[in-house]
Amino acid sequence: MDGEPPVARRGKRPKSGAPVVDRALSLLAAFDEEHRALGLADLSRRAGVPRSTAVRLAARLREWGALERDERGRYVVGLRLFEIASLAPRSHGLREVALPYLEDLHEVTRQHVLLAVRDGAEALLVERLSTRGAVEIAYRVGGRLPLHDTGVGIVLLSGAPPELLEERFAELSAAEGVKLRRRLADTRRQGMAIFDRRKPAPVSSVAAPIHDHTGTLVAAVSVVVPAGAARPRAYEQVVRATALAISRGMGLRRP
Hints:
9 helices, globular, disordered N terminus, HTH_MetabolicPath_Reg, transcription
């Protein structure tokens, strides 16, 4: 078939095209929040691999448990991936320490409570506790959030390496860069961030940093409340106390 890479002999790597493991990973990466179930044609297209390759790799991934088929025959992410992902030390150890404190924070505030870590140039949500009827937010566990446009993201960005910060500033206009630098400086000085967001619903986020035993910023915790429903600063003390308790649980000996 035109455009298909040559088929490799068993046990040998294809002479051209991506390695087999890269093609398999591209199939898994084809899924996202808006594409949780994919037919073969869409899976092949989104992964950028020929249909015959998609058929072969999808069958192998199903065998292993990384993919499953739904009632309509579409491919969906398999539970085996969840099982493996749950062992990631940056999320599992942190979540295990943080969860009792997050539950206390949720009980006190009755609002959305988020726990996130930085993964490259994005924030990755590792826990979310929500109350029925709380304001709408488009965040899910395992989902990614922009660093510059969320409360937990601003906190995580405030502790990011200089090279990542410079990359971010390079993408902004001069005025936007000045505004972001001020926000990050305020976050470092105050030890927390208060951030307002308009979409999908107007919300305010109160976020604070979590540090490990070396004092390194490793995560952020936040409460997300409806904009205008309450003064965000009313949540500042309890969010700060939660972040400090989790940090001590991570081995931090003094703030």
